[in-house]
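Fill in residues.
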């Protein structure tokens, strides 16, 4: 069970990181 929680937390962190990168990219385009 702990491994599943860790994987979910990792996935959430990665998705948040990707969102930040997309925001940064759109900010650069402006």
């Amino acid at each position: 069970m702990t491994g599943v929680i860790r994987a979910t937390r990792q996935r959430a962190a990665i998705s948040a990181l990707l969102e930040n990168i997309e925001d940064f990219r759109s900010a650069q385009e402006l």
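Helices lie at 2-29.
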